[in-house]
Amino acid sequence: MKARVTVMLKSGVLDPQGKAIGQALNRLGFSGVADVRQGKIIEIEFAETDQTQARSQLAEMCEKLLANTVIENYAIEIKSS
Amino acid sequence: MKARVTVMLKSGVLDPQGKAIGQALNRLGFSGVADVRQGKIIEIEFAETDQTQARSQLAEMCEKLLANTVIENYAIEIKSS
């Protein structure tokens, strides 16, 4: 089964990396850019074939390793098996 | 308009960060994890309201700054305006 985990900083948490990208885009002439936020994508291929099992396993992975839940939100998206 | 750009290493390009995550997950007891790849998400909010204009602008941003097209693929996803 293939899954995609998206980890983004919670809204309200300062995102200096996103801000830097926004400023760089402005300098390159993209003047309409207002706000930029950067996050991570983690694509995982794993053995589990049951959807619900997979989802709970992925949530555990996020809580334990992939996301810092104090400042980050995560979203789990399961693709085809 | 809000857009989401996803930047992933091309398949075949070595991804040490993804490999490290995979090994860490294995050590944490998630034994079924086969392959992990890590990428970036960039969420951009900008003034452009025309879909096609926005898409071509985003493609230009990716080519110029957001992605290293030698080793990375990008995908553009436009959300609601």
Concise structural overview:
Two copies of one chain form a homodimer. Chain A has two helices and three strands, in the order E-H-E-H-E.
How would you sum up this structure, described in words?
- Two copies of one chain form a homodimer.
- Chain A has 81 residues and is of the alpha+beta class.
- The first copy, chain A, has one domain (2-78): Mth169, Chain: A, CATH 3.30.1280.
- Chain A has two helices and three strands.
- The first copy, chain A, has helices spanning 16-27, 51-66, and strands at 2-9, 33-46, 72-78.
- Chain A has a three-stranded antiparallel sheet.
- The longest helix of chain A is centred in the last third of the chain and has 16 residues, at 51-66.
- The N and C termini of chain A lie close together (4 Å).
- The mean pLDDT of chain A is 94.
- Chain A binds chain B through residues 6, 8, 18, 21-22, 24-25, 28, 30-48, 57, 60-61, 64-66, and chain B through 6, 8, 18, 21-22, 24-25, 28, 30-48, 57, 60-61, 64-66.
CATH topology of chain A: Mth169, Chain: A
Secondary structure class of chain A reads alpha+beta
CATH superfamily of chain A: Phosphoribosylformylglycinamidine synthase subunit PurS
Helix content of chain A: 25-40%
- Rg calculated over all Cα atoms of chain A: 16 Å
The number of distinct structural domains of chain A comes to: 1
Q: Largest sheet of chain A, described in full?
A: 3 strands, antiparallel
What is the string of SSEs of chain A from the N terminus onward? EHEHE
Determine the mean pLDDT of chain A. Answer: 94
Oligomer: homodimer
**In total, how many beta strands of chain A?**
3
β-strand percent of chain A reads 35-45%
User: What's the shape of chain A?
Assistant: elongated
Q: Largest interface, per-chain counts?
A: A-B, 33 and 33 residues
Question: Helical stretch count of chain A?
Answer: 2
Low-confidence stretches of chain A: none
What's the CATH first level of chain A?
A: Alpha Beta
